[in-house]
Amino acid sequence: MYKKRLFTKTLMATAVMLASQQTLAAGFQLNSQSATGLGRAFAGDAVIADNASVMSRNAAAMTLFNAPAMSLGLNVIDTDITVKDTTYASVLPLDDAQIGGTSYVPNLYYVHPVNDKLALGAGIYSNFGTKTEFSSSYAANEFGGLTDVKSLNLALNAAYRLSPQWSIGGGLDIIYGQGELKRSNPKFGGTVLDVDVDGTAVGFNLGTVYELNDLNRFGLAYHYSPELKAEGDIYLLPAGGNLNGQSLLMPLPDMVEFSGFHQLNSQFAVHYSVQWIEWSSFDALKTNKGVTLNDYQWQDGWHYAIGGTYTVNADWTLRAGYMYDTSAQDKKTSISVPDSDRQWFSGGFSYNLDSKSTLDVGLTYLMGKDVNASETNGITSVTATTRADALLYGVQYSYSF
Questions:
Q1: First CA to last CA distance, the chain
Q2: pTM for this one?
Q3: What is the pLDDT of residue 26?
Q4: CA–CA distance from 202 to each of 13, 19, 205, 390 (Å)?
Q5: N or C: which end of the chain has fewer CB within 10 A?
Q6: How much is the pLDDT for 27?
Q7: Contacts of 214 (CB under 8 A, 6+ apart)
Q8: What pLDDT, on a 0 to 100 scale, did the predictor assign at position 189?
Q9: pLDDT over 90 for what percent of the chain?
Q10: Per-residue pLDDT at 101
Q11: Do the beta carbons of residue 398 and residue 163 sit within 8 Å?
Q12: How many whole angstroms separate alpha carbon 382 and alpha carbon 337?
């Protein structure tokens, strides 16, 4: 079992990312930091600042608040992941496997303006996570098995307004990750790989906001993700069995996001984001003594999102968005972490309970593509077609003090 700290600044949980969840975005990135963002496919989320959750994408946007603000939410991820048309050892056809599940990803944020220039904030959320689990009787479990990664991110941020147009911000990301990885085959004596580890690492984030005027603004943010060193139990049969005493090194991807927001009139606004994710840093899963558990050889990924917000009246706001998310997998594919280019179709609304309280609801249908996966361990092999779709829905309560 392998425990990936994954967060990446990130959750999933921020969540506790994965408490049983599957990847919602390419690689094991988890786009589920707020119900508000979910309702617009996270388009413009590094600069919109309609509630405290903006600090998870861009700390500098905290200067846009003129009163303390709190947001508390829960996103639910229901994944439909299929492994079909499978051939094991070049000759044995296998039944289709359903390896998806349901995950619950909480988040909590607080932004506190100290004065008209300085703002402080804290948040709990997740950036990464994934879970796939094949039946214990699956014939190709040296390739399938269990992959379960959970992460939790604690962000401590500050932002400062340099001028009426420019703000900067940044902070620390304290990341806790936990992961399990299990592979087995009776012909190899049962367990082939069994990892159960966890660990903590410290990253950081930097950001800026430029306000062209009251109706137009832009945000740019960078998240540095550290290599997480996880401790626990590691068993790898090809390497001689018990590797306890060694640490698992989890390279997490850095992320850069650019967002824009434009209020076109009193009711309608358009917003957009482009995000780069350095998945090429996740080339292999190794121990601190150089033992390789798995090669990934991923490529950098991109998100392109556009959305709109429509203010119906003083009580109701509607939003929608679309995202195109590129795959982290390149030439090397996998049945245990299915991945492909994906499309997000999102919608949501806000209802103002009173002058200080808002209830947000978001819904997304994530549609993947069929991908031909092929793996070998030098002894046997598996080929299959994988597909990962998901339904994400979230609810969030925000309060302005």
A1: 44
A2: 0.89
A3: 59
A4: 17, 21, 11, 30
A5: C
A6: 63
A7: 263
A8: 67
A9: 71
A10: 85
A11: no
A12: 14
pLDDT band at residue 344 using 50, 70 and 90 as cut-offs: very high
d(CA 62, CA 88): 53
Contacts of 342 (CB under 8 A, 6+ apart): 25, 26, 324, 325, 327, 366, 367, 368, 369, 388
Neighbouring-strand partners of residue 29:
128
CA–CA–CA angle 133, 303, 12 (5° rounding): 40
**Do 177 and 217 meet the contact criterion of CB atoms below 8 Å apart?**
no
Query: Does the bond joining 82 to the residue before it have cis omega, within 30 degrees of 0?
Result: no
Q: Which two tokens stand for residue 365?
A: 């249908």
- Kind and range of the H or E run holding 288: none
Structure tokens at 238: 């090809």
Question: How big is the chain by its Cα radius of gyration, in Å?
Answer: 21
Q: Which residue reads 């479990």 in tokens? A: 141
Average pLDDT of the segment spanning 194-222:
96
> Would you state the pLDDT for residue 188?
64
Pairing of strands 255-263, 241-242: unpaired
AA letter at 312: V
**Residue 198, token pair as written in the block:** 């966890």
- Token pair listed for 206: 């930097």
